[in-house]
Amino acid sequence: MADKKQKETKEDITFFHPDIFETPENAPPFLKGYKCKKCGKIWFPKFVPCPNPDCWSEEMEVVALSRRGKIYSYTDVYIGQPTMRSYMPMTMAYVDLPEGVRVFSQLEGEVGSFRCDEEVELVAGPVRNNLDGKPITGYKFKKISS
Ligand SMILES: [Zn+2]
C-alpha cells in the first residue's frame, strides 16, 4: 500500500524510444547507431535490413554514436501539436555526426541563437508531454558550454 502511494507521487516520465537512445546512470546519454556487420555502414535510427542497395544484410550491431556533431540545417518552430505547445517556440535541426549519420533533433536553447556548422552536444531532457501532460524524456542537442 505504501509502495503504491509512493509510486503515485513520483513524477511520471516516459522514455522517448529505447531503440534509439540510452541514458546510462553513471555516464552521459548517447544515441544508438546500427552498424551493418556486412558493409560497415552505420544507420540511425534502426534499419533492418541494411538500406544499402548492395547489401541488405540483416545483421546489425549497436554502436554508441558520437555525442557531438555540427548543425547541418535548422528551423525555428512557433506552432506545434498540443503535446509540444509548452515547449514552443523551439528550434529543430539536422545534426551531422562524425559517423556520417544525420540526426533530426530538437535543439535546447534560445530560438534564433543557432547557426549552421555550429558544434552541438547531445543531452537528455523533456522534448514533449504525454497526453496526461507529463514530460517525455528524449534526446536533443545544445550549445557546447566551454
Ligand atoms: Zn550493409
UniProtKB/TrEMBL annotation:
Gene: bbsA
SUPFAM superfamilies hit by this protein: Nucleic acid-binding proteins
One protein family per Pfam: OB_ChsH2_C
Keyword Transferase attached: yes
Molecular function via GO: acyltransferase activity
Top-level lineage group: Bacteria
Organism: uncultured Desulfobacterium sp
EC code(s) of this entry: 2.3.1.-
Name of the featured protein: Benzoylsuccinyl-CoA thiolase BbsA
Keywords noted in UniProt: Acyltransferase, Transferase
TM helices/strands, residue ranges: none
Signal sequence interval, chain numbering: none
Keyword Transmembrane helix: no
Ranges of residues in domain ChsH2 C-terminal OB-fold: 63-123
